[in-house]
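From the shared-data thread, chain only:
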Amino acid sequence: MINISEICIGNILHPNGNDETLVATVRAVEENKISFYEYAAANPAQAAPVALSEIWLKGYSFLYDANSGAWSKGSMHLQPLGEGGYRFSLGAHSQILSFVHQLQNVFFSLFNEHIQVEIAEDVEAPEVQLAADSIMVNYLPKDRSVRAFSFSLTVEGASYQVQYEKDAQGYWAFSSHRPI
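Structure, as tokens:
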């Protein structure tokens, strides 16, 4: 179960805590309901936080420093903790972050803007999916009977065609990508 008081519009969550392959972007938050752009609404007991991991840090353009063992972006630093999660620090501010929505909320509170996914030139499949998932809401078909859609994504001169399909529950899921 997720703490509804931590959730903001734009946060990335698992809309169904039983399926951690699905991620969705929060569209609206009510007392007993979280609405998503990509998926049906869920009550807070159904939704689950997305664990903060290297794939998300890479997607948000944090760089890993092997000497310190920490991730950094500008003057922000995330030091991995043995028990999971990261110690976020920026100047005198420090706190433990375990989930993507926590990083998103800290970034927004510090800089008054949403943290954006960026992709480096040596794009791997997880990074393509991360970038596509962050913008796919702009390409959702208006016709609810459509079972699949695709769009192209260009990052630093490399273009990809990404495909989404509806799963058995009717949720949009990333299915494939290919260079174009």
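The two ends are 40 Å apart (CA to CA).
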